[in-house]
Design goal:
The structure is a homodimer. Chain A is of the alpha+beta class. Chain A has helices spanning about 1-15, 35-40, 95-110, 125-135, 145-150, 155-180, 185-200, 265-280, 290-300, and strands at about 30, 50, 60, 80, 115-120, 140-145, 205, 210-215, 235-240, 240-245, 245-250, 250-255, 315, 325, 340-345, 345-350, 355, 360, 370-375. Chain A has 9 helices and 19 strands. In chain A, a hairpin with a 2-residue loop joins strand 10 (about 240-245) and strand 11 (about 245-250). Chain A starts with a helix and ends in an 11-residue tail after the last strand. At the A-B interface, helix 3, helix 4, helix 7 and strand 14 of A face helix 3, helix 4, helix 7 and strand 14 of B. Chains A, B: It comes from Streptomyces albus. Chains A, B: InterPro entries: Creatin/AminoP/Spt16_N, Creatinase/aminopeptidase-like, Creatinase_N, Pept_M24, Peptidase_M24B.
């Protein structure tokens, strides 16, 4: 694993050296976003930051109390530095410790002779940025921008393997739930049970808070589970995902409770299914991201449900659940091979409920068989 | 509940009007830290921000996709505003949506005639701060500083009740674990089981990642559970806490596995227990925070274990697990009544293991019986 991280850091250095940084060239780089630090070092160390120093050496600066090196990773050429406990009663928690490690890293960069330090302005707070300026006044602070996030978009096969395992775990957890009695149980109870099953099957945890929505709640995009109980005739929509080795996947399915779905339920389900399939089939290297969104959107719009659709119909996944690319009308850019994305259109009819169908897929060229579906739970409309 | 929030917001307004804001007076306030938004509105709405407008009206601006009002709270005088989906492919997740709601709130403040807007510079990112300036160029952005965090230090009885329930849940979860067979099970497995039991007993979730440490790992402050199995003769240290209505408590206990502890284990346990008791007994309104820390520290230092101690021996708890005050050598300020804090000294001997004992208590005057212990699981050295 460590070679992978060395090479990821080398790519980031090359990019900065080539002055492609957002805000001019920089001879040192400070990475503070936790997912980015993990991507570049393999370490999941809360509050730690990574310094790519002017001398060509990389240093992981740990937050106070975290201590250097957790020993779980083989040594690579990454130096490790623990930060002493601060003398001041700084706020605890992520923000406070982040700041301390970042300040220590800025001092280190200054002592190492750096003139310009690129920082992640989309992650550093205003207060922390000011603390860096105060601690290392000779350093010019530039903006790294989303350079690491962009580097993370295309995944290597090891990352895709982790996502594949995450998807397997997710399918298993969902499959077991479908075999159990659902009527009479609350959304909240079902969501907890799904999260337990994810862990039983080897997940580190849930990739995001599990959503279970019944009856009139079904199909609501950001629904948080309530104490509403599953009833006969309900639509039931669930959205969950496992986190495995840091990688997060997402599945969403909608079912009907009882013997047979009503006509309007079948009609709505078939419509969302058609929209989701259209977007899945549009996934191909070179396709504009907004084209994928449009493929789903036009199916729903033609049926009069365009306004019921959310702002996007999918997004990248990886170390975070919402990564680039974004599949939305305003999205810029094209898909690449080896980019894992969700495809997740849905329609919600106020007062009646609705349907969501979410899959995680990896973009692959047609020559390799087209998009690789990671979440393989059936998309038939099951009556449970 | 809503009256409580109205009055909390009125106090914040008064404070800002009295020019006690960190960076000059401001006629509008933007609160973006999630715990602060929750404290002032009762709403736990990811990415939402609160605007105290220049017209005396308060508005909760929801993140895109969240929609206004979750309906779980009675109406108070809080306006609710949903933000439209952004046209640009902004990063998803907390950061992105936060930014959008904050930008909408800044525009609203500007349209309402505000001249200076106080923002939380310790929470807003540099990029977001710049977006606010661009969106509302006539506004002067001032720094609110940790005004809301300071307001949150002293808790009302409703908040303390929530903490009391969180502590009860935590004691129950820990008590059940102690009745089960432990030898042969992994740290990771035990931690998962504790987290499940927290939820079984009514917690919304864990207050922080549960730590279970065995043998040579026992007593390590930030230990993350590994696949090491519990063995006869081990020290076993656990640290866990429930989240209930947003409020988070913390307990830590250390046990010995097997029939009888060894002499060095008893000696070390008694020492940490004495240090922890000294700090608990020092909790009183008016006492300097650093005095509480010193009470624990001097017991350990006298026994030659001063260097094994971490940077602090306790901290406030509430909507976040690490709040002010901090009980450390550099801490400034005195304790007030109705401030819940942890007292959590520990000693770790490399290669052998160690002891941690953490309690959550509420500072109360002697006339009211002194500090109120919320986490009541026994602190005898149990052999399990």
């Amino acid at each position: 694993m460590s070679e992978v991280h060395v090479s990821r850091r080398a790519r980031l250095r090359d990019r900065c050296a080539a002055s492609t940084a957002h805000d001019g060239p920089a001879d040192a780089v400070l990475v503070s976003s936790p997912a980015n630090v993990r991507y570049l070092t393999g370490r999941a160390a809360p509050g730690s930051v990574l310094l790519l120093g002017p001398d060509g050496h990389d240093t992981l600066v740990s937050a106070p109390g975290e201590g250097p090196a957790n020993g779980a990773h083989p040594a690579d050429d990454l130096r490790e530095l623990g930060v002493e406990a601060p003398g001041s009663p700084a706020a605890r928690g992520e923000a406070g410790t982040d700041g301390d490690a970042a300040v220590a890293a800025a001092r280190l960069a200054e002592r190492g002779g750096a003139r310009a330090l690129a920082v992640e302005e989309h992650h550093l707070t205003v207060a922390r940025h000011r603390a860096l300026t105060a601690a290392a006044p000779s350093l010019h602070l530039a903006d790294l921008g989303p350079a690491v996030e962009q580097q993370r978009v295309v995944k290597d096969e090891e990352e895709i393997s982790a996502l594949r395992v995450a998807a397997e775990i997710t399918d298993q957890a969902l499959g077991e739930l479908l075999e159990s009695i659902l009527v009479g149980r609350t959304e909240r109870h079902l969501a907890l049970e799904l999260e337990r099953r994810l862990i039983d099957h080897g997940a580190e945890g849930a990739a995001f808070p599990t959503s279970v929505a019944t009856g009139p709640n079904a199909g609501l995009p950001g629904h948080r589970p309530t104490d509403r109980r599953v009833e006969e005739g309900d639509f039931l929509s669930v959205r969950l995902g496992a986190r495995y080795r840091g990688y997060r996947c997402q599945i969403g399915r909608t079912f009907v409770i009882g013997t047979a779905p009503e006509a309007w339920q079948i009609e709505l389900y078939d419509l969302v299914f058609a929209a989701q399939r259209a977007a899945r089939e549009a996934l191909e290297p070179g396709t504009e991201c907004q084209e994928v969104d449009r493929a789903a959107r036009q199916v729903l719009t033609a049926a009069g449900h365009g306004t019921a659709l959310g702002e996007s119909t999918g997004h990248g996944v990886g170390l975070e659940i919402g990564e680039d690319p974004r599949l939305s009308p305003g999205a810029v850019g094209k898909l690449d091979a080896c980019v894992p994305v969700t495809v997740e259109p849905g329609v919600h009819l106020p007062g009646r409920g609705g349907v969501r169908i979410d899959d995680t897929l990896v973009v692959r060229p047609q020559a390799d068989g087209g998009p690789e579906l990671l979440t393989i739970t059936t998309k038939e409309l099951l009556a449970l």
